[in-house]
Write a structure and sequence with these properties.
The chain is built from ten helices and seven strands. With 305 residues, the protein is of the alpha/beta class. It has one domain: pyruvate-formate lyase- activating enzyme. The strands form two sheets. The chain has a five-stranded parallel beta sheet. A two-stranded antiparallel ribbon has the order 2-3. Helix 3 links the parallel strand 4 and strand 5.
């Protein structure tokens, strides 16, 4: 869906498979162990060509990181734009790649890039270190600025609830979204995501982590865990239930965010009203189904890989 309310038919393609990064919580890592493989450009272009023939107007690249091979990715989007000038696209890219290859962003914009998804996961540098994300909160803010300068929308994703999350830290996350004018950029489900620990997760290699989790549960394909502060788990469940209801009612993101803010403050025994949301917060292009991963399935939520 585009900001003006119009819709485009979306196709899907992969320019590469696997990932060369080792984020501890990522379910891709146990499968590919730091390797990625480029899909030959001719195959990618033929795949997209078939989808365009069937009516696709936008392509979502499903690579774990579109810039694992920057030269390959650039070759793909140049060829697509040359053949289909009106075709738009989006991709998932790590912050460190956005910063390292910031010079590519203007060309991405010219070639039809509408938005880029990047896994922020947390705004707490301590949690980011546990997850081995290799970026900091400062890098997050730098990437936001770079994408805005290139006029490319940013779709951040989060693992909002981890064994290290605190109620105070969750409110800092909400405050960061307000300060950076990102309320409209974040699907509310992203603010309810609970860490999934799948079989083979590199989190299991983290010293002391096994003390935070329960035995493997084949029903959820992962290791359950409960937070040592039960208030955090209660907040996560309350937010998940509320967001599920809000989704069925198609409530505006600003309204949902305000309710999330009040629930988070109430968990700390506070009644602070939601902050004023800047007029800079505008709707961005978005897929009809929110992107998310690394989520522990609970009553109403399934893990997505």
């Amino acid at each position: 869906m585009l900001p003006d309310g119009s819709e485009s038919t979306v196709g899907f393609a992969e320019a590469s498979r696997g990932c060369k990064h080792w984020c501890r919580h990522c379910p891709v890592v146990p499968v590919y162990e730091g390797h990625f493989r480029a899909v030959p450009a001719a195959i990618v272009l033929a795949d997209v060509r078939q989808q365009v023939a069937q009516g696709a107007q936008h392509v979502a690249f499903g690579d774990p990181d579109f810039l694992n091979g920057p030269t390959h990715g650039l070759r793909i989007v140049r060829a697509l734009h040359a053949e289909f000038p009106a075709l738009t696209w989006d991709a998932t890219i790590k912050f460190q790649h956005l910063i390292e290859h910031a010079d590519l962003l203007p060309e991405f914009k010219r070639s039809g890039c509408l938005f880029i998804t990047s896994a922020v996961e947390a705004v707490d540098d301590r949690i980011l270190k546990y997850l081995a994300k290799n970026h900091t909160c400062a890098d997050f803010e730098r990437a936001v600025a770079l994408l805005r300068a290139a006029d490319i929308a940013f779709a951040p994703t989060f693992v909002a609830f981890t064994p290290w999350t605190t109620l105070e830290g969750y409110i800092v996350l909400l405050e960061s979204l307000v300060r950076l004018d990102l309320i409209e950029n974040v699907p509310p489900v992203q603010l309810t995501i609970r860490l999934l620990v799948p079989a083979g997760s590199h989190l299991l290699k983290l010293r002391g982590f096994r003390d935070l989790i329960e035995p493997f549960d084949a029903k959820i394909l992962g290791y359950p865990w409960g937070h040592r502060d039960p208030r955090v788990d209660r907040l996560q469940q309350a937010l998940q239930d509320f967001v599920a209801r809000a989704e069925t009612q198609a409530l505006p993101r600003r309204q949902v965010f305000g309710a999330i803010w009040r629930l988070a403050r109430a968990a700390l025994g506070q009644t602070a009203p939601p902050p004023a949301i800047s007029g800079a917060n505008r709707a961005i292009p978005r897929l009809s189904e929110p992107w998310y991963c690394c989520a522990e399935p609970t009553n109403q939520q399934l893990a997505v890989f």
